[in-house]
Amino acid sequence: ILGIPDEAKIIGIVAVFRDQKRLWIWIDLALKILQKSPETHFLLVGDGEWRSRLEKQIEESGKTAHFHLVGVQKQVIPYLSIMDIYLSTSEFEGLPIAMLEAMSCEVPVVATRAGGIGEVIQQGVQGFLSEIEEYEELVDYCVQLIQDPELHSAMSTASRERVVAQFSMKRVVEELEGVYESVISKSVY
Which run of H or E residues covers position 110? Predict the structure, then answer.
């Protein structure tokens, strides 16, 4: 797929290429991961104002064969499902839907503790978190997941279970119905 060798581990993200995502840091971390795990490939799904600068950063690294920028995709699930790790270096975030989708595809998350990310990921269970300015830690977390298949497998399963249990549409609808029912039962009397 995309000229990525079958045995390669794939670290990816789905994002709008804008300042808050700090994708220049993402690329920098990717290059550091490559030094420790040279078979890794990196998949960026999305586009935005930072694209040309990111392409230049990748080109100057001499590692373009390891990076795959596929642009905006209507269907992201096929891309998420080939990822081994979802890496995020955001400075601020709401609740990133693409991250939840990755988790539903059994992809563990390695990310900064930006916004809602820290509420979803339990450290060491569905992935690993760093403080927003301690993002250098993410390199070793990714390498650890690449080198420890048992840990990766456990986190993959835990990621999907967390999304199904906490963030599935069924659960959201059930909770909303509960709110409506409590309001209706109070207003009847």
Answer: strand 109-112
